[in-house]
Design a protein that fits this description.
about 325 residues; mainly beta; Beta-galactosidase, Chain A, domain 5; 8-stranded antiparallel beta sheet; binds 6-O-phosphono-alpha-D-glucopyranose
Length: about 325
């Protein structure tokens, strides 16, 4: 039909950077993916409401990673190693993967894009390993956002490599003090604000009244973020990613970040599906897969109702 927008569109974003727009068949929900960082920067529902947070001060210019959306932390999460904070995948230019190996779950869905990252000569100097990192980003028929990472060791020197990883997802929330996270109660975590010491989460669902920077360990495959004011619940499902980072910089750290507004901490929360505590090791020829699926349901779906059937049908 004339006037109908295509499910996949290649265009230019901020500062002329290449981006891909994915649209659902009904045309109402959409995602944007920048080749810079292989980064999702927008995910809208069928009402046109933005579900991800991107800072109004985000710098869309290398070498700074884009502040918001879903940066990919690879091959190192945070500063736990010799590389720059969160590794380098988030500030490299990815390419469109024109010939991706087959996907087991190939549906009739057309709103997806395959990206690929391989090391440059310069990258090999700081991390001397050959790899192919394939990322498929899909907008599902119900407006769900799905990311699948496939990382393969292509070293021909016989050497294995190890890495840590996170989908550093910035969710947009109405008011951080009205938000709760369910699914992480009673779990152990490493507290980045207390020299990565290990603690056990006590009590009920997690709420926010000050800076938080924790790595929850051995988390369930499903986590919910309840936004009471918006009457919306985000449901995060993950596979191959045992850990979950929860981060909000709060006021002091917000002020210290050049690419983050002073009050923006009130409207975002990072819940990051990750593999951190036990690094992934791949021998040459081996591949690792890590999947993240995000959806939203109205907040009638609330505390204690983490029933997969309801979510799928809701
Ligand atoms: O400022 P960035 O390098 O993007 O990192 C932002 C944040 O990422 C993660 O959530 C870490 O756990 C935090 O310690 C870090 O402050």
């Amino acid at each position: 039909m004339s006037g109908e927008k295509p499910p996949v569109e290649f265009c230019k974003g901020v500062n002329g950077l290449d981006k891909v727009v994915l649209r659902e068949a009904k045309g109402s929900s959409a995602e944007q993916v920048y080749l810079y960082g292989g980064q999702v920067t927008s995910w809208k529902n069928d009402q046109g409401e933005e579900l991800l947070f991107v800072s109004s001060k985000a710098i869309f210019k290398p070498p700074k990673a884009i502040r918001g959306g879903i940066p990919i932390c690879f091959p190192q999460f945070s500063n736990n190693g010799p590389l720059e904070q969160h590794g380098f995948a988030r500030n490299r230019f990815w390419s469109i993967d024109t010939d991706p190996p087959p996907f087991p779950t190939n549906t009739s869905n057309k709103a997806f894009v395959d990206l690929i990252l391989k090391p440059s000569e310069e990258d090999l100097k700081i991390w001397p390993h050959s790899y192919e990192f394939r990322l498929r980003v899909t907008l599902g028929p119900g407006g769900d956002l799905m990311l699948t990472s496939r990382i393969r060791n292509t070293n021909n020197d016989g050497k294995p490599f190890s890495f840590t990883f996170a989908y550093h997802t910035y969710f947009s929330v109405s008011d951080i003090s009205e938000v709760r996270v369910e699914g992480l109660e009673t779990l152990d975590y490493l507290d980045n604000l207390q020299e990565k010491q290990r603690f056990t989460e006590q009590g009920d669902a997690i709420t926010f009244e000050s800076e938080v920077d924790k790595i929850y360990l051995g988390t369930p495959t499903k986590i919910a973020i309840l936004d009471h004011e918006k009457k919306r619940t985000f449901v995060l499902r993950k596979d191959g990613l045992p850990d979950a980072v929860v981060w909000n910089p709060w006021d002091k750290k917000a002020k210290a970040m050049a690419d983050f507004g002073d009050d923006e901490y009130k409207h975002m929360l990072c819940v990051e599906a990750a593999a951190i505590e036990k690094p992934i090791t791949l021998k040459p020829g081996e591949e690792w897969k890590g999947r993240l699926e995000l959806s939203t349901v109205p907040s009638s779906y609330c505390s204690g109702q983490l029933d997969p059937q309801r979510v799928l049908q809701g």
